[in-house]
Specification:
- The protein has a domain at about 5-255 and about 475-484: Amidase signature (AS) domain (Amidase signature (AS) enzymes).
- The N and C termini lie close together (about 10 Å).
- It is α/β, with parallel strands linked by helices.
- The strands form two sheets. An eight-stranded mixed beta sheet has the order 4-6-5-10-11-9-7-8, sandwiched between helices.
- The mean pLDDT is about 95.
- It has helices at about 5-15, 20-35, 45-60, 105-110, 155-160, 175-185, 215-225, 270-285, 300-315, 335-345, 350-365, 370-390, 415-420, 425-430, 460-470, and strands spanning about 40-45, 70-75, 115-120, 165-170, 185-190, 210-215, 255-260, 290-295, 395-400, 435-445, 445-455.
- Bound molecules: glutamine (GLN).
- Glutamine (GLN) binds near residues 127, 128, 175, 310 and 422.
- Glutamine (GLN) binds near residues 127, 151, 173 and 310.
């Protein structure tokens, strides 16, 4: 059977050309055969998936319609799933079985989705390469010696290898967009507050946002319809009228003003990545879009500001893992302090510990003003840059990452070079703006991503631009030969 997209499968399920059970078995079979080479799943929920598929088939037989009815998907292992291990890529939560579903999972299940399993990720979503996972690194399906990006690298690799037609991701500083770029898939980080964070394990709460990853923009729109929406259980959830993100995909791009930030095309951008991005922009121009050179003058401050704000929030959020309530507990503690310190020392990996230490430091009484408060002010300047830019342009475009997927181990010893791989993605999180990455070309066999950043609530426009691009080019349809 030829592999289809999420949207294609939805059509075939509705037409009863295939049953949800057959479709689910097809993907479970692919995971069993092919995942050992890339390690994109931490947990495969075969029995639950087949039961959900049978339930979906009964609903389909009754003529019911729901946006994801009968469609297999994978969930990043950061989303709580009732009765299923939710590890967040950490030894700390290796034996944690969530007692409830995250809102995203609940919404997708209600929309009829069939969960195939939980995908691998950087520990507590901290990383850009998926090498910090307790379950071992994920490998890039385009070249197993290279990283898939992170932290949603398991989801990106699973979609790229077609082990799932779509998956969820989360993006705190680029973790949907950068792995999407590295693996040649489409991923969308929505406006902060669009998608509920309830039951999504917290890393840096003012930046974290869940979103869809799939082959195409059209598929991401279908997923987002199910994922997005107001949730009273998340105090930062946005109260917005319901929107159908698939509705505007076919609008043409005539007169669309695309801002090209000077700072996103400067030194440090790999020359071949630059060439691929410029070729992609030419396609958008041919479809009627008008490029406008713009400046985001505080771009250079986004990585340093992020590496104060994100660790600060992480140090606070991760204080809950104390060995008492849930998660890893050391054996034979001498006293309470020993229980805390040894449980945390054993449960967390090196990168997580580094962030907790930095975060505790920047929040301490003596340094709060110098670091944390300063970073919050810089954050405001970055948001202002975008506010000004969106007075002139409709969307902003540029590379998703300055480089190609790098080799496993290449940056492990140098955290700062790893942090710089998010140099073009982090600003959107600091400002709360939506951002999308889509496959825009290749260098050798390796994918290159084009990033689109939109104004607040403008996800539909990002998806529209990406869909128009995907009508013209076939980059999003390519798949790695080893997984064909
Ligand atoms: N790579 C960034 C970090 O390590 C972003 C991670 C993310 O978006 N979750 O913090």
């Amino acid at each position: 059977m030829t592999l289809d997209t999420l949207t294609g499968w939805a059509r075939r399920l509705q037409a009863r050309e295939i049953s949800s059970r057959e479709l689910t078995e097809l993907y479970l079979g692919r995971i069993e055969r092919l995942d050992s080479g890339i390690n994109s799943f931490v947990t495969v929920t075969r029995d639950e998936a087949l039961a959900a598929a049978d339930a979906a088939d009964q609903r389909l037989a009754k003529g019911e319609r729901a946006p994801l009815l009968g469609l297999p998907v994978a969930q990043k292992d950061i989303f709580c799933t009732r009765g299923v291990r939710t590890s967040c890529g950490s030894r700390m939560l290796d034996s944690f079985v969530a007692p409830y579903d995250a809102s995203v999972v609940e919404r997708m299940n209600a929309a009829g989705a069939v969960m195939l399993g939980k995908t691998n990720m950087d520990e507590f979503a901290m990383g850009s390469s998926n090498e910090t996972s307790h379950y071992g690194p994920v490998r890039n399906p385009w070249d197993p010696e290279r990283v898939p990006g992170g932290s949603s690298g398991g989801s990106a690799a699973a979609v790229a290898a077609r082990l799932a037609p779509a998956a969820t991701g989360t993006d705190t500083g680029g973790s949907i967009r950068q792995p999407a770029a590295f693996c040649g898939v489409t991923g969308l980080k929505p406006t902060y507050g669009r998608v509920s964070r309830y039951g999504m394990i917290a890393f840096a709460s003012s930046l974290d946002q869940g979103g869809p990853m799939a082959a195409s923009a059209e598929d991401c729109a279908l997923m987002l319809n199910a994922m997005a929406g107001f949730d009273p259980r998340d105090s930062t959830s946005l109260q917005r009228p319901d929107e159908d993100f698939t509705a505007g995909l076919d609008r043409d791009l005539k007169g669309l003003r695309i801002g090209l930030p000077r700072e996103y095309f400067g030194d440090g951008l790999h020359p071949e990545v630059r060439r691929a991005v410029q070729d992609a922009l030419a396609v958008l121009r041919e479809r009627g879009a008008e490029p406008v050179e713009i400046s985001l003058p505080n771009s250079g401050l986004s990585v340093p500001a992020y590496y104060v704000v994100a660790p600060a929030e992480c140090s606070s959020n991760l204080a809950r893992y104390d060995g008492v309530r849930y998660g890893h507990r050391c054996s034979d503690p001498r006293d309470l302090m020993d229980l805390y310190t040894r449980s945390r020392a054993e449960g967390f990996g090196a990168e997580v510990k580094r962030r907790i230490m930095i975060g505790t430091y920047v929040l301490s009484a003596g340094y709060y003003d110098a670091y944390y408060l300063k970073a919050q002010k810089v954050r405001r300047l970055i948001a202002e840059d975008f506010r000004r830019a969106f007075g002139e342009v409709d969307v902003i475009a540029g590379p998703t990452s300055p480089e190609l997927p790098f080799r496993l181990g290449e940056k492990s010893a140098d955290p700062v070079s790893m942090y710089l791989s998010d140099i073009y993605t982090i600003a959107a999180n600091l400002a709360g703006l939506p951002g999308l990455s889509m496959p825009a070309g290749t260098v050798g066999s390796l994918p290159v991503g084009l990033q689109l950043i939109g104004n607040y609530f403008d996800e539909a426009r990002l998806l529209n631009v990406a869909h128009q691009f995907q009508q013209e080019t076939g980059w999003h349809q390519r798949m790695p030969a080893a997984f064909a």
